Q: What sequence folds into this?
């Protein structure tokens, strides 16, 4: 089976580190980006299978990144999970309308992330 790639996009190094541990345990190769601009550059070179995406980041936020990702060649392929502290229904609806496949509330653990990956068909 070919390896699957997950890109973790979060401005918090600690969140990226914790997420990496969980996602690697699910059998994914992992790359990281600290903001949406860095993630977009990454995706133009290598399109990941799954993207864990933070909402609020400097340089380029998650929603802007997501809208731009979906316009790239093959940019509709990755499963995108927003990882956020946003709880407002209209914000979550906005993320789903922009092309997110699902969302995960922070803080999350391995069990929650595995269930979300399963829901979107990533595992």
A:
């Amino acid at each position: 089976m070919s390896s699957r790639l997950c890109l973790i996009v979060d401005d918090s190094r600690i969140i990226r580190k914790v997420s990496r541990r969980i996602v690697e345990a699910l059998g994914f190769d992992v790359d990281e980006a600290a903001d949406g601009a860095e993630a977009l550059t990454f995706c133009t070179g290598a399109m990941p299978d799954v993207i864990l995406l933070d909402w609020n980041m400097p340089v380029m936020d998650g929603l802007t990144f997501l809208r731009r990702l979906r316009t790239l060649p093959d940019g509709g392929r990755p499963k995108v999970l927003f990882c956020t502290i946003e709880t407002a229904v209209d914000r979550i609806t906005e993320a789903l309308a922009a092309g997110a496949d699902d969302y995960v509330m922070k803080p999350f653990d391995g069990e929650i992330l595995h269930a979300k990956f399963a829901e979107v068909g990533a595992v």
The radius of gyration is 13 Å. The longest helix spans residues 13-25. The domain at 4-119 is CATH 3.40.50.2300 (Rossmann fold).
